[in-house]
Amino acid sequence: MKRVVFNQKGGVGKTSISCNLAAISAQQGYKTLLIDLDTQCNSSEYLLGPHYADKNNTAADFFKTFLGMFGRKPYLPGFCHPTQYGRLSVMPASPELATIERELESRHKIYKLREALTDLSKHYDRIYIDTPPALNFYSSAALIAADSLLIPFDCDSFSRQALYNLVNTVSEIREDHNEDLFIEGIVVNQFNPQAKLPADLIAQLVEDGLPVLGSYLNASVKLKESREAHMPLIHFAPSHKLTQQFVNVYNLLEGNELQPVTDA
Which domains are delineated in the chain? Predict the structure, then answer.
């Protein structure tokens, strides 16, 4: 299964959702890869620590192979770096992704990621793709390459409009490039159960037939602490309420039974 996490709106939790679901997947026994395509490199730092930038064979190098910069075809798993967490690897991002984007576009390399992930799927049970907050070459390539899309939604009116725009974009990509792509779920993030607006916005999405996942993610300082520690929540605070909510989002995606969420 290849899942892309994308929303054109920034600050909706793409990195947190990508990294924590990937970490839970690995903890559940699946060999899991997270591909970071955002030049901000937040997922890379979250899972690999502050020295992620010292890594060779980044996502930028991965794409350079399609421009003929390294001669012979490389061994693709060589771009996937193991983390300190068993069964979890990362293809780290690099600011250099921005430098080569125009050439990749001009040479029509938009399908190369899909071809590569077909190969990488032989080595990994689950692949998560974190994307930049814009519909650019890399996010488009990820949507073309993925089986399914997860859309973070942070419960405000601007995010709702971005969501509807993205639904239209997915329809176009499905029609033109990837007929099998489907919206697997809308992940409600930074949910405030005490406020009326979030509940009203979610109800509207459900009424419109959008696949809102039934487990919401609350806002919590614990998430910021886990990112500072470069440790996903399932390892940093396994009994925390937000961790349990992430596990239930994961369970919904995998068809597993939901677990009770407590205030532990």
Answer: 2-254 (3.40.50.300)
